[in-house]
């Protein structure tokens, strides 16, 4: 499978985008016994109008996360291989899952987390990553790079004169024309998965 299959041009509506798209990310809330609780792992991505765009849910096994669209259709199955590696799968027209990308955590310190992302293509021995993810999960700061170009960024929503900026909601900005938005969201899910501190 060539990497053009997940390039933005495969989605016509996205290919027409000329401006960055913002999503706002929060933990997914759920009703439990009449009270509202916040999921430890599931995320919600809404657009600037407040419309749901993406959600995540648990997969059939503990090490799998599912990325869904607003209609609960599965977009990606994200499988954690070990503490540092993930694989992303998409279903073809026949419902068969195909490997789309591999990610490898290459740095994980208090101040910095970094992943290399390899899009699956004919060159199984590729050594250079197609994408890089760098950031600081605690501060909700993450940047996805394609070469020297910025594909997407996350950041807290600072307001003038705010002494305290809550971390329970942050902004994801996806820049146009580089990578499909669903792939970007899948990588954000991987980057923040398992983070215990979510105030």
UniProtKB/TrEMBL annotation:
The chain crosses the membrane at residues 172-192. The keyword Transcription does not apply. Keywords: Membrane, Transmembrane, Transmembrane helix. The keyword Lyase does not apply. It comes from the Eukaryota. PANTHER family: PROTEIN LURP-ONE-RELATED 7, PTHR31087. Belongs to the LOR family. This is Uncharacterized protein. It comes from Heracleum sosnowskyi.
């Amino acid at each position: 499978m060539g990497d053009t299959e997940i390039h933005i041009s495969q989605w016509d509506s996205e290919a027409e985008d000329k401006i960055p798209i913002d999503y706002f990310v929060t933990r997914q809330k759920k009703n439990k016994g009449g009270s509202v609780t916040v999921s430890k792992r599931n995320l919600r991505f809404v657009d600037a109008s407040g419309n749901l765009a993406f959600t995540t849910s648990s997969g059939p096994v503990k090490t799998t996360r599912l990325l869904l669209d607003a209609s609960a259709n599965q977009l990606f199955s994200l499988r954690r291989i070990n503490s540092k590696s993930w694989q992303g799968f998409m279903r073809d027209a026949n419902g068969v899952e195909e490997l789309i990308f591999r990610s490898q955590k290459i740095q994980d310190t208090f101040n910095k987390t970094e992943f290399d992302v390899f899009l699956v293509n004919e060159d199984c021995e590729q050594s250079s990553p197609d994408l890089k993810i760098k950031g600081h999960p605690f501060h909700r700061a993450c940047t996805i790079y394609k070469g020297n170009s910025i594909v997407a960024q996350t950041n807290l929503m600072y307001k003038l004169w705010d002494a305290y900026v809550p971390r329970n909601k942050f902004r994801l900005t996806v820049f146009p024309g580089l990578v499909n938005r669903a792939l970007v969201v899948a990588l954000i899910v991987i980057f923040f998965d398992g983070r215990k501190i979510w105030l």
